[in-house]
Amino acid sequence: MVSQRPFGFLDEKEIPILTLSGGAVSVELIPVGAAVRAIWVPDRDGRPTDVCLGYDTPREYRDWNSALGGTLGRCANRIGGARFFIGGREYRLTANEGTNTLHGGGVGFHKKLWDYAVGEDSVTFFLDSPDEEEGFPGNLHAEVSYTLRDGTLDIDYRALCDRDTVVNLSNHTYFNLAGHTARSVADHRVILRAGRYTPSGAGNVPTGEITSVEGTPLDLRQEALLAERLEHPALAGTRGYDHNFVLDGGGEPAAEVYCPATGIALEVNTTLEGMQFYTAGFLTDRTGKGGTQYGRACGLCLETQHFPDAVNHPEFPTPVLRAGEEYRESTSWRFFVR
To answer: Choosing from 28, 103, 143, 172, which is the catalytic residue?
Structure first.
């Protein structure tokens, strides 16, 4: 079931909150950034708990950085040097993080106002990105569909373009399974089924290597308590986790997160080969929903995607979408109590 209520105005347009309800779980979506605003999950005592960081007005989703809950595009994560080549031609992009492009440039998809259509148990958002927007080639049509059934939120991405281009869509929800007011995810336990990662150099742009996690704090193949990892000296440069993991695949969930305080757990499945695991080390202090103060390590992101800067590394799976071909990827989040 999908219900609507007013959220506010942006660019003189009324912005609704679109709520998906499916069993005990409900999810709030907004057209600004095709974003997830809230996820209500019952804890072990049946108390509804909002496990997603967010804001109280539409304008904050556009004006603040960090893309809380938003859909990332045209290319999630970083493109080194804000440029790439396709077919021997160089394309120069908007550099919005030093000399690099992050999450699509100056006005990425998470800051756009998307159109939408409502289904019986789903909402689909639509966006058209014109040729050369932020420097990317081609007129791109993108869609993101959210479907909620039995405690599982399916996110389906689709895109088409009239020129060869780069497409890498992802979602930037910050989870805190203790509730968005809890201020820290240090008590969370995490499993990432990834035996390898892509090391990064300056600006957190991959070097092109693919390296084993064995013997490093990036080895999360067995359940690990974040409090025992976040201050590890090897993670000082990224203030915790901000790394791209090469997912093992093989049918098991790509990631599992558990909060002992509430009993709430999350499983992530995806068709994508990478996941940027981010523990909000660079989240600056700000006011979120209900006046809650957010800051460093208040949430964690599980950004399923193509590898960062993959267009500049032929050894990585390609993020190039050829003209006339269809981009289709999906990710699902299953919430439950254990």
So the answer is: 172
